[in-house]
TrEMBL record:
This is Cytidylate kinase. GO terms for biological process: nucleobase-containing small molecule interconversion; pyrimidine nucleotide metabolic process. It comes from Streptomyces klenkii. One of its GO terms (molecular function) is CMP kinase activity. The gene is cmk. Pfam families: Cytidylate_kin.
Length: 237
């Protein structure tokens, strides 16, 4: 090894793999994107992939409550995720899916599709391949990153927040677009979390070695700062 290459190898920080899990509305996407951008890491929104495959099922007339039909079609759509944290993208068979995957129809159907083992196997493989290709490292967010997708991640975070705080955050987002009723928003969040936590295959769960951060009383900036500090501590350990 030449002196220059040897010095570069010694000074460049090793790729860091971070998994951020937690229930809906706890701040996973906002935190993960900002942390990845600050530290020069890639960013992967695995929820967007589950939403994308759900959108494809709905668009192709597949009954999302028919697990056998969903399983049979699991390998058909091509899902591509762009991992630039300042402009993440998601396409299905080459079509931009960023808008359609955020509709109420997809949100209501996604837990049923994501409970199908064949769907999880397919997306877990894709997620691991994306993480393996991230040169400086990656922040991957979802529900089963610490437990199943990346069990050897350098740092695992499990974000939580009260259902009231999460509903208030979501209602703020939806204002002027769809229903803004706080109680209905909270009920929908709780229902989706229950479905995600209750499925047999890789449910929403905190990994034993994850750091839990309750974001209820924290601003987004405080959560970002907390996660950046945890990553820096791991890197220097
Ligand atoms: N600590 C915080 N304080 C106030 N608002 C926050 C905080 N964290 C996130 N938010 C806001 O809450 C909303 C939900 O955040 P975000 O989409 O990041 O959550 P999420 O955990 O990724 O949700 P989901 O799992 O449903 O995709 C966003 O409008 C975001 O700006
Ligand atoms: N690792 C993951 C990520 C997501 N899901 C499922 O996708 C739904 C949508 O996720 P959002 O983060 O976009 O809200 C979520 O409710 C889960 O059903 C998953 O199973 N595993």
């Amino acid at each position: 090894m030449s002196d220059t290459v040897e010095t570069a190898a010694r000074t460049a920080p090793a790729a860091v793999i971070v998994g951020i899990d937690g229930p809906s509305g706890t701040g996973k996407s906002s935190t993960s994107k900002a942390v990845a951008a600050k530290l020069g890491l890639r960013y992967l929104d695995t929820g967007a992939q589950y939403r994308a495959i759900t959108w494809w099922m709905l668009s192709n007339g597949i009954d999302v409550n028919d697990a056998a039909a969903v399983a049979e079609a699991a390998g058909k759509p091509e899902i591509v995720s762009g991992t630039d944290p300042s402009a993440p993208t998601i396409t299905v068979d080459g079509a931009d899916a960023a808008g359609p995957i955020r509709t109420q129809e997809v949100t209501s159907a996604v837990s049923a599709v994501s409970a199908v083992p064949e769907i999880r196997t397919r997306l877990t493989e894709l997620q691991r391949a994306i993480a393996a290709e991230a040169p400086a490292g990656i922040v991957v967010e979802g529900r089963d990153i610490g437990t199943t997708v990346l069990p050897d991640a350098d740092l695992k975070i499990f974000l939580t927040a009260s259902a009231e705080a999460r509903a208030a955050r979501r209602s703020g987002e939806l204002k002027g677009k769809e229903a803004t009723d706080l109680a209905a928003t909270q009920a929908a969040l709780v229902k989706r979390d229950a479905a995600d936590s209750g499925r047999k295959t890789s449910p929403l769960a905190k990994a034993g070695d994850a750091v839990e951060v309750d974001t209820t009383e924290l601003t987004l900036d405080q959560v970002i700062e907390c996660v950046v500090t945890l990553i820096e501590e791991r890197r220097s350990a």
